[in-house]
Amino acid sequence: MNMSDPSNTRSPSPSHAHIVGWGADLDPAMRPAYPKERTPPRLPHAVEPPEQQHSHVELLHSTERPGITPIFGTTLPPSGLSGRLRRMAFRHSENDLRHWLVLLLADRVQMGEGLIDDLSRGHVPNLYAEMGGRAELRHNPMGAARKAAIGIGAVALLAMVLKRRGRSRRLRG
Amino acid sequence: MLAMNYRGPYRVRAVHKPEPEIEHPGDAVVRVTRSCICGSDLHLYHGLVPDTRIGTTFGHEFTGVVESVGSAVEHLKPGDHVLVPFNIFCGSCYFCQKELYGNCHSTNPEATAVGGIFGYSHTAGGYDGGQAEYVRVPMADVGPTVIPPDMDLDDAVLLTDALPTGYQAAEMGGIREGDTVVIFGAGPVGIFAAKSAWLLGAGRVIVVDHVDYRLEFVRSYAQCEVIDFKQVGDMAIHIKKMTDGLGADVCIDCVGCEAAGNFAQTLLGVKLKLQGGAATVLHWCINSVRKGGTVSIVGVYGPTFNAVPIGNAVNKGLTLRMNQASVKRHLPRLIEHIQAGRIEPRRVITHRIDLRDVADAYHIFSSKLDNCIKTVLVPPGMVHETTTAGASH
Fold first, then answer.
1. What is the distance of C-alpha B132 from the center of its chain?
2. How sure is the predictor about A11, in pLDDT bands with cuts at 50, 70 and 90?
3. pLDDT for position A1
4. pTM
5. Cβ contacts (< 8 Å) between A47 and chain B: which residues?
6. Which member of B17, B26, B64, B145 has the lowest number of beta carbons within 10 Å of its beta carbon?
């Protein structure tokens, strides 16, 4: 069957006549994943097993494989406290919940490290811009106002609590 | 070069970072012409995917022009305008030999359950993604596909993930002529799954969501019925009432781990992260499909456990099928569908945003502001430009 032939589209029943392309792939043979697993693949350029990529950064690998894969990403090797946590996580297999939970913890720790890193380089992050504040103001002004009111309320409450605490300390002193 | 940069949950910014280099003889460096924000990027953006490191550049849906190639690359040359499947795959491992490119065993040292994916955390191989001006593309002779010269770039970029994933979702449902298909999620993948269900011969297509403008869009774009789940008491009862008490023939999960609709699931899976995301839609699928029916899952879930009603699936004799889409496998047929006018992917693109404004782009997409369906990021100065691959050389 010639798959590029537009006449492959089967005539739809009257109830589906308004749907362009209805039934074009009704025949399973027209479907790209038929059969479910197909060997050999229909890749245009069959390749040999890839050459091993050389690593110039620290890589962590799953304990469920003997070593690193022929190809890998080299961005952001583990570093700092979060890196130590990630190395710990990779002592456990993907089958072990500790692997994933420690990685999630490392992600949260690294968020703090990122802030410290920014500040240490003299860059104060613009949290408003990074969280899309401008888009919120433009497309959801009521929501932005609500968030601003909640923020101001929270700051006011905190200030009030701190003031009261300070007053009670002065009275005790 | 300019690139998106992740700083923690709900925080991203555009930064200048070094351009990528050839690191393996099979690599190419590609200058990006389009990159999308995908619904699955939001799981990263919200901090739900383990080992998403600060400083990562996201972006697994992109097109671009080849700038340079490694010494082993024979069939791709500088100047070629390519669409790059989101899977990074070798083409020769045990799984690639079976056309399971989403399961390649040669490109992700950090996990065995998933292959390499551009810009999708170290759990998916630690590669930077395409929400940047340049990107390293491994296995350049295998993954990228040269874009047909008459194809619109907005159509092409949707062939890198959203359309093939929607198509595979429908295909894994094993749809037979006249089947009733229920699709959960009216995002781009759900929209394309609905279109694909018709291509596969469905008799009835129903899409479930709770955002009015998304339901309106999918109703118009895919000529399907829609359900607002917030207007429905119990999803399984509702679907059964619509299907003579039997249930749907096929249910498709195009939502994944951040599903709304069940407070307990959201609290446990999304807020407290005590399971790999909210399994709300998995419950709806398993309980709404008919006995002997098929549940197809392309929504992304975390690698930890989920509370899923597997007992009901057993008792009902269901077929469960799921996977990351093996994009390369679907491309020839989907290109034919686009060229024949059976599907117009670019119509789902509602926002074209400068890469410099990536934080706003993420917020608009994540918060479903401004009737956003799909956002495309373009390099600085190209926001108003629409081109075909041939015209942009």
1. 18
2. low
3. 37
4. 0.93
5. 26, 90-92, 139, 141-142
6. B17
Task: Judge contact between B15 and B2, C-beta under 8 A.
Answer: yes
Segment A143-165 mean pLDDT? 88
Any idea how long chain B is? 393
Strand order in the sheet with B204-209: B225-228, B204-209, B180-184, B248-253, B289-297, B319-322
Establish if A110 touches chain B: CB-CB under 8 angstroms: yes
Q: Is A157 on the interface with B (CB under 8 A)?
A: no
CA torsion angle B227 B233 B236 B238 (round to 10):
-50
What is the chain B residue with the closest CA to A13? Answer: B203
Backbone angles phi, psi at B3, to 5 degrees: -155, 150
A117 in helix, strand or coil?
A: helix
Summarize pLDDT for B303-315 with one digit per residue, the tens: 888 889 999 999 9
A3/B107 Cβ within 8 A: no
Percent of chain A, pLDDT > 70? Answer: 91
Helix (H, G, I), strand (E, B) or coil at B149: coil
pLDDT in tens, A24-79: 999 999 999 999 999 999 888 867 889 999 999 999 999 999 999 999 999 999 99
Instruction: Take residue B144 and report the two structure tokens written for it.
Output: 């990228």
ipTM for this model = 0.92
